[in-house]
Each structure stands twice: as structure tokens, then as C-alpha cells.
Amino acid sequence: MIESDYLVYYIAAGVVLVGLMLFLILRKPKTKKSAFIVDDLLIGQLLQIIPFSNMKSINSEVSRVKIEVLNLEIVDFDRLKSISNGVFISGKSIKIMFKDSADEIVKAINNKR
User: Does residue 17 fall inside a structural domain?
Assistant: First the structure.
């Protein structure tokens, strides 16, 4: 038989393990809420920097907006950096980082066309 000195420790460990298992089973998963709303001012600024006539294609990649342009020379990268979280250039492709809103920005730009 288990010694009575250790019985209290076994009971306490059992209660902790049962409580931990119940917590892991019954907890609610966190829902991701998107607080960012794409406003017309941001889309207007983006379209002033890169007009439709210079856009070859546009799509979203995770938190980035990827825009293929016809002419890189007419894009004002300083203004583009000021309205975004970062800008990456590869060939004639511009990847612009926005915090959790790339899909909404692409949808808003496509709706303006």
C-alpha cells in the first residue's frame, strides 16, 4: 500500500493533471479579427503612385500585394514606402507589405477598375 505521506502528493498531482486536461479540451480557440478597413484614401494614394495604365497584373501573397508593372521608372518608391510597411522590387514586380490587409487592398483596387 502507498505510504500516507505520499498520498497527498499523488492526489494533488492527479487534480492538477485532470484540471490541465479539462482546460485544454474545453478552451475556445481564438478567432482572428481583422480590424483593418481599406479606405478610399489609401487606395487613391496607391493608384496615384502606380496608375492602372502602368499595372500589368495585381494579386495578393499572404500580407503582400504583388503588382507587375510595365514601367518602373514612373513609380515613386519614396511615397510607396511611406504608405506601406515595406517595398520589395524584383525585375518589374513590386511587392508591397501591408499589415494583414493584402487581400482587401487587391479586392478594392480591382473594384475601382
Answer: no
CA distances from 63 to 3, 53, 66, 96, 106 (A): 60, 24, 10, 8, 11
Residue scoring higher pLDDT (46 or 5): 46
**pTM across the whole model:** 0.65
Tell which residue, 38, 34, 36, has the closest CA to residue 112: 38
Q: What is the C-alpha to C-alpha distance for residues 83 and 80, in angstroms, rounded to an integer?
A: 6
**In whole angstroms, what is the distance from residue 87 CA to residue 95 CA?**
6
Q: How far is CA 17 from the centre of its chain?
A: 36
Domain that includes residue 89, residue range = 40-112
Q: What is the DSSP string of 81-96?
A: HHTSSEEEEETTEEEE
Our count of domains for the chain comes to: 1
CB 91 within 8 A of CB 83: no
- For cell 502606380, the residue is 50
CA distance 108 to 106: 5
